[in-house]
Design goal:
single chain, about 350 residues, alpha/beta, Dna Ligase, domain 1, 15 strands, about 40% helix, about 30% strand
Length: about 350
């Protein structure tokens, strides 16, 4: 393993830590003049990408000591001083949904939700940490014509063993874990801010693609599709008869953007088309159920910055698609100005997490 790049601009902050499938991203933010200010950032990447791709190994399945070492390397090399951290739980390790219930009071809801949760959470409640929040008050009219108040509740569950492992990793790295947050919540905070309109966020990671629809500031529907950057790399390697390391390089440098290496793009197209299909399906499901229209789509994740990926995705989807830009909500040193297009899609989750603590 090894680190790739680090920056150091100041010394006090809150940390956002995003442990992904191929790297550990850390961002340090503070507040200044009512705005978030970037102090430091760093990324620790797997050096042995070929082994990781062959096994589709998740970073979280590595030995805890390896993850702790990687975090410590980022902290050391970036000269990050803060030790208060918020970490994210990836979408594929969690469960979340929105449920509608008759509304009486928050006290009564607190008693009711554990019983309702059993219907939706595919694990024994004794094995998970459950959290919930009211996201919308409404009403409905049953057959007899009587209007009954209802409430929409966002329900989330994290396996206890995952939560405990994150705490142990943070402790081992000398950090105080002040919060553990769902990855999608951090993404939304970084990318949409106070925008209340229906927006879809597509996060293309190494292991999977996460598609979520935000509306009125809350996650309404999400879907995790088990194809990501690793599968595309393997497809290029098979089609061209090259090593996985070379395929990874071609993915990053050629992407969908060169007729001279057309076989590279052809090796990816069916997989990218499936990502587009899953995005369309998720958006359509929400639009049909709520009789509304998703206004735009935001792309993030390492694959989002691949050459011509945004253009192809936008044309195939037939919607307004933009690259995620969490730096629009930050102030940052001038040295970073020319890098935001490359850094934004990669650091979106970590920035959203740090915003919570700053």
């Amino acid at each position: 393993m090894g680190f790739s790049f680090f920056k150091n601009f100041s010394s006090r902050s809150a940390l956002g830590i995003d442990i992904g499938t191929a790297s550990i991203k850390i961002v340090e933010l503070t507040r200044e003049g009512g705005r978030f200010k970037l102090l430091n950032y760093g990324i620790f990447q797997l050096e042995n990408q070929e082994e990781a791709i062959q096994t589709n190994q998740k970073v979280l399945k590595l030995a805890d000591e390896a993850i702790i070492w990687g975090i410590k390397e980022v902290l050391k090399q970036a000269k990050i001083k803060s030790r208060n951290a918020i970490a994210s739980i990836p979408a594929y390790s969690t469960f979340s949904t929105v449920i509608s219930l008759p509304y009486l009071s928050e006290k009564d809801l607190a008693k009711t939700i554990p019983f309702e949760a059993k219907k939706y959470i595919p694990l024994p409640l004794s094995d998970v940490v459950v959290d919930w929040s009211i996201i919308n008050l409404g009403s409905f009219t049953p057959g007899q014509g009587k209007t009954v108040p209802t409430v929409e509740v966002f329900l989330a569950a994290v396996p206890k063993h995952e939560a405990e492992r994150y705490k142990n990793i943070a402790n081992g790295a000398g950090l105080t874990l002040t919060a553990l947050e769902l990855e999608n919540i951090g993404l939304a905070r970084a990318l949409i801010g106070n925008d209340q309109s229906p927006i879809a966020i597509v996060n293309v990671g190494g292991r999977s693609t996460s598609i979520l629809v935000m509306d009125k500031g809350y996650e309404r529907i999400s879907h995790t599709y088990e194809i990501g950057g690793f599968e595309i790399t393997k497809s290029i390697a098979r089609s061209m008869g090259v090593s996985l390391a070379r395929a990874e390089e071609l993915k990053k440098t050629v992407g969908l953007g060169s007729d001279h290496v057309k076989v590279v793009s052809e090796a990816m197209l069916s997989l990218v088309d499936m990502m587009v299909f899953e995005t369309k399906k998720t958006i359509s499901t929400y639009e049909t159920s709520k009789q509304t229209k998703v206004q735009k789509v935001i792309l993030v994740g390492g694959l989002a910055i691949m050459p011509k990926f945004l253009e192809y995705f936008k044309n195939k989807l037939g919607m307004d698609v933009a690259m995620g830009n969490p730096f629009a909500r930050l102030t940052y040193p001038k040295e970073v100005a020319g890098l935001t297009n490359q850094l934004g899609p990669v650091f979106s989750v970590a920035i959203g997490l740090a915003m919570r603590g700053a």
